[in-house]
Fold each of these.
Amino acid sequence: MKKGLNGLLIMLAFVLVLAGCGKSTTTTDTSQGSDSGSAPAEETAGPVTVKHKRGELKLDKPAERVVTLEWTYTEDVVALGVQPVGNADNANYKVWVTSEAALDDSVTDIGTRSEPNLEAIAALKPDLIIANADNNTAVYDQLNAIAPTIEYDPYDGDGYDYDKMTEIFNNIATALGKEDKAKEVLSNLDQHYVEAKEKLAAAGKENFNFALTQAFTYQNAVSLRMFTDNSVVIGTLDKIGLVNDWQPDKVENYGFSTVGIESLTDVKDSNFIYITQPDDDVFGTAMKDNSVWNGLNFVKEKRTYQLDSTTWTFGGPISSKVLVDGVVEAITK
Amino acid sequence: MSSVQGSKPAMNWRTISIYGGGLTALIVLFFVSLCYGEASIPLHVVWDALTGRQDSLEHNMVWDLRMPRTVIGILAGGALAVAGALLQTITRNPLAASDTLGINAGAYFVVVLGAIAFPGLLSQSPFIFAALGGLLAAFAAYFMGGGRTSSPVRLALSGMIVSMVLGSFTSALHIFFSMETQGLFLWGSGTLVQNDWSGVFYALPWVVGITLLALILSRQWDMLELDESTASSLGQKVTLARAVGLILAVLLAAVIVSVIGPIGFVGLVAPHLVRLSGVRSNRLLLPGVFIWGAALLVGADVLAKMVHNSSMELPTGAVMAIIGAPWLIWLVLTRMKAANGSGMSTSMSTGGAARRFAFGPMAVLFSVITVVLILLSTMFGGMRIPLADWLPSLFQSDGLFSALIQLRIPRTLVAAGAGAALAISGVLIQMAVRNPLADASIVGVSSGAGLGAMMVIILWPGLPIYLLPIAAIIGAAIAAVVVFSLAWKKGLNPSAVVLLGIAMSAIAGAGIQILIVRGAVYGSSGYIWLTGSTYARTWEQVRVIGLFLVILVPVAWWLARRFELLVFDDNSASGLGLGVRRTRLLAMTVGVLLAAGAVACVGTVGFIGLIAPHMVRLLTGNKLRRSMFLSALAGAVMLVLADTIGRTVMAPTEIPSGILIAIIGTPYFLYLMYRSNWRKSV
């Protein structure tokens, strides 16, 4: 049993790191979150009703002190121009999530995403907690006793796709009284897609075929997360006219298939876009001299494109923008 | 020196069949393993690749991805099997292997430690770290198990416990240093996946060299199988041969652990498989063992590939445990006759006649400590509540401090209740099997409960939470029924019970891994729950554990009285007939149920059922009911302490209580084990 436990713990360590891995980085657009607190004119002040997984939540007034237990929601909140008072695992957020959705130093760390520290959350006296059904559903009642809690489940059977991303984003905007800001963010994003498409067209890369992966070393071997059509990243790239070639036989709830190098033969003629971590550069080092890797057409023909390590693949609008910027830059270079 | 074995063993038909069968199996599995992978490559293409490699994608895949994996499987299986055979010979112990003696766990622990402390040095020479760790663990197991006077069971048990201790230390390292350990060393459950040939090239010279050396020295190992008096007349030679054998075995295991991680049971099973054919001489035994070990591991790996889902692959180590654990059971049932009743088990006392303190004052002292600690525990956490604010906050219903206390009270009570339940369960199980080194986790009951509860969490995540304790009870009951019905014919012989329990734990652990792979659940609270967590427990769990205690403790109390009336060992009690056996069975049942209740509430926390009764026995002697009362309080104190520390020291990150219990409790337990041997040998 102990042996099993070790395995579990290790897997746990792995899960903690990777369940949330993905990220994207860009370095423009610095001060999204700097205007938190100071109420812009658009803000509604009256009671609001928010839809979430467990029905509807009524708040007397829009929430101001928000605690987020999953980075997707943290990013949504930041995109709305608000900094949460508490976030799960700040250190890894910085590693994985783009600096365009940066956290202020004032944001308190409330522990891991899988076991957020209830005491630390209570100490912040939040007026809204945004929880993730995947990790936090067992503690929902306790969270709700601390502060009104809304819960979302991005992975309730068919993946966290683009529509679900915008739906959750809009709901969170309602809770914060930032619906106008949300509209603005989303329409800016659509405008951004139009511009990106133009850039692609100018470079002759319309209808660009691709496979997108996030790769890492697991159990000392290369492991690849190949994203599927029901993921937010593929949904985003679809908006700029790119065509995903990774089509698995079954629906992947998390929006990706985890495979080894062998499976890349299925997409060997495609264009290969990948995200790796600086300290785990699987294609640079582990695969450099591998005959299978080097035999894939996209490697032979130098059609591999690396994105920044902080390209977050499970994010919200900011991550979508960063992903589009990164991909357009990489393939038109 | 050459006359010891007497004859050149004849190459009889059984020998030929064991070699032929092994080689055939290995060759078939070799091809199956090459044919099986993510990309589908037809058999004839695999054959083309083998006979005439071309620079095609398929051929490259066969040669540079699948072949290294298969070859490392052959090397690892063979090496672990040879190590097991050597260890079984030098310790004259049919249960010895690099995993049962803690060598794998030791090697792995030091490698992970090296990854944190000396990352540069480690990447250059992981082997040195692994060898050092393996050797230290082997010595620890040997001395804790009683050194020369150790019985086979005792040595295996001590090795298992050393493994558990080191395993929990490794887990702790992963938690405390997640950043340093995450990318580097995540192969803790044993997998053969290879990126390229580098692992093979690294292991090959060592495995071949050491195996050949072991073969050249085969007559020395033959000598070690002589009976004690003949061997002792050879004196020094025997000691030297033992030492050399141990070093060779540790080196073999260490090189394998540093490539593929700790994999168990190969070294235990393969030698017995070959010995079944009647092969005795090590010159014939070792090559046969190598072949069968290789076939076993490659076979396990093929099965592991089949359980693969789109998210992850089943660790080969888990499949090996499912193949290997029944063998351990078989060994216990058939090969343990000679070892029955040896070593431990004659007395409940490991510390001999210890200091005795009067029960009355002790009871008062323990009660006061428990109550004070529970109250103190509500003061500490991510935020400390000052004494001045503490008392008022207890009775207020709003304000920050009272909110914190509202969160802390239920989890503290759950910890106290589960700790008490585990301790009482330990006392009962120890009574039942007359074995001071038994508790729910050692006899496999905790793992069974864990598997049952995990099935609810993973297979039917929508089910209501009250089914968790029920599933845990069912799992625990099945594990207990299997273990005890197998051990029944041996009169519930303590040694048999413990070893069957270890086998059961291995099977349940592998089952949990399969569930996780098949369920593909990320970030599930199930993972953390399994490590023994008091995180976010609510009044709901307080009620569950309270219910278990209210119903079962009076029964336990009555049983303890009954045991006090019965004479202790079976020989003198046999006149009382079935009464003894029935009472023991009942104690067993109640102990199992209590443990299941605790597992349902806090996950698989180990060791409390072992440590608490020991501590108490040391203080007050063997009066059962007194011991039970004090043990319950001691168990409660331990888990409350673990809970408090776990939520305080690394706040806001929590440390699972189960890991803290292992870290706090096992050194004490090892000390007790050592002490009892020392006293016995004087």
Amino acid sequence: MNTLVYLIPIALFLGGLGLAAFLWALKSGQYEDLDGASWRVLDDGDGRPEKG
Amino acid sequence: MSCCAPGVETAVEPEGGLGLPASEELWLASQCLGGGSRQTELSVPGVHCGACITTIEGALRRRPEVERVRVNLSSRRVSIVWKEEVAGKRTDPREFARVIRDRGYEAHLFAAGEEEEDAVLKQLIRAVAVAGFAATNIMLLSVSVWSGADAATRDLFHWISALIAAPALVYAGRFFYQSAWNALRYGRTNMDVPIALAVTLSYGMSLHETIGHGEHAWFDASVTLLFFLLIGRTLDHMMRGRARSAISGLARLSPRGATVVDADGSREYRPVEEIRPGERLMIAAGERIPVDGRVLAGASDLDRSVVNGESAPVPVGVGELIQAGTLNLTGPLTLEATAAARDSFLAEIMGLMEAAEGGRARYRRIADRAARYYSPAVHLLAFLTFIGWMFVEGDVRHAMLVSVAVLIITCPCALGLAVPVVQVVAAGRLFQGGVMVKDGSAMERLAEIDTVLFDKTGTLTIGEPRLVNADEIAPAAMAIAAALAAHSRHPIARALHDAAGAAAPLAGEIREIAGAGIEANTKEGVYRFGSRAFACAGAGEASRQSEAVLSLDGGELASFRFEDRLRAGAGESVAELHRLGLETGILSGDREPVVAESGRKLGIRRWIAELSPRGKVEACASAVEGGHRVLMVGDGINDAPALRAAHVSMAPATAADVGRQAADFVFMHQTLTAVPFAIETSRQAGRLIRQNFALAICYNVIAVPIAILGYATPLVAAIAMSTSSVIVVANALRLRGGGITEPQRQAPMHAALLPAGDAR
């Protein structure tokens, strides 16, 4: 029973962390273009620095 | 390196950039970000892979005025942030469109103003996240309870579950509560009423049980239920929102504005709504006519195919009346506006469209129809269970528990989840194949059709002429004609140029005479290319719609004959439609012999020619009265009312703005195989939806008796509900297993090989 006092808050905290991370990702527009993102992973670029 | 558009880079671009949005229009539509920078959204339907992204972003980034550029592959959009001025020079936003076009992609202006839709979607996704978080955590605690936690531990876990569930239900459940409340307030009932009731009652009962140190609590059930239903709701919303915004944001045919010449001679680019009758407008070659007007000065050819379906350009001169929406091809015109935008031909079409909408509005979505029977049945069942247990045991608490269990277990997961999942998967498959769907009900309607009616110009045919007697013409004459044709953007000149390939430029003074042809003063003499009347100085009949003559000093050198060509895949598509057991027909505004010829080529036996927009609507309506369900495929402004009047409708992406707005489906690539492809996918989706309903009924047949008999413990309810949801989703995903079909493979190829219809 005593371990639960630690474990449950830890579980909830970690879950909450996941939720917060998801909401942050959503807010910063990371879900706007899922198709594009999967292609961008493969893009090595041409070695030149990006402008702006 | 681009896989997508081989060879397009070499295509000769008419110097005016026909089909590119005008600079002023782009400037007007761009969003001011402050600090001297602006943002423009362009719709580029051709992007479909990583190479496209790199090509477009790379090309735009190289321009000095571009600050940021990002291609969105999901919505096929490019957003560009650019500086208003670079080194003291005003930026021309049209350059962006040109850069994209030079890489072989079509670029259209994207209409902003979909932010509101997005906000709801974001809220829904957030609600899904919160419900998911709550569901997983409560489930974790519930598993402990089910596996034997008892006494104080069980109470503690129930209390924690209650604490997690309460805010989650309020936050994530508000969509259902609001909708249910709205329905109840007007004395109706909908799907959300049983959902809201089940969630609230189960929470209330569970709390009551927890306070009384009871054994069972349904917190997990109510939150999981909400989670699943919210997923369905979110998918449904995406289905309705995303594709629609992409469609409305494509090319705009009705221009946003025009250059107005004031009494003192000053020029100003004004939005089309602010143009008053009597004002003078300058229309450059390549621009669309914004409002109805009378020609004051200039001569030109007009492409009226979008307005009346006639494929041949019509010459116009001073004093003639022209309609809004037509495309000015060859010469600049000065117009006097005769009607404001809201009284124009376009507005008249809008009126017809509204009148034709009736049939569409009466259609009820499958889920709505099912919900009408479902929710009263469920409520009655739960109520009868309560009465029954009261009668048997007389224990209010237990009777209440059992009837809540019935409500939970019968909650319409299949209705809430099955239909949207199938539709989203189907829409995704259609999108891959180049067909965009406006909303789920369009697919439901498409699955029901038995007749397909086509418009001719721009739908069955490309609406561009093609040279048919190329082998009869001497190569020398062909080369000269092609060199002349390179200086015009008249459709016939472009067709000749396409047929001849690259031509050596002609030395000498070359000019285009609007409404007639092209003339060149060279050492050999005066070459003329155009109508017979023009080229041979009045000799012979002037059948200019299908013929062009090359002459040297008035003597005929060669005569070129042209024909409108069929859209890629038209023949196969019609055959495929017949194989699917559908009737076909043509409704066209074009002249009878032309329509008859197309019908003969394609094997379509029934056709009506020379129809007005009203005539098309009436033809559709009479088919509906004959008990048919009609799919109308059309592109022009004159088709728009018929597109609305038909049971369901489809338009190519090259269609007029109004046509695209009116259509339920828009196909992005040139080939017409999109039509049978969409029909087949919709039918498959319909089958899967029916299967899912059958699965849901089976599930209820098994689960409801268990619940009524009082054996539905929270564990049983959780397993039953989750299993049914997972099965329904898995069934929907089978649609994806159909593999890559022909249209999907072919579509991008066709789009690249044909000069994508940029004018319409």
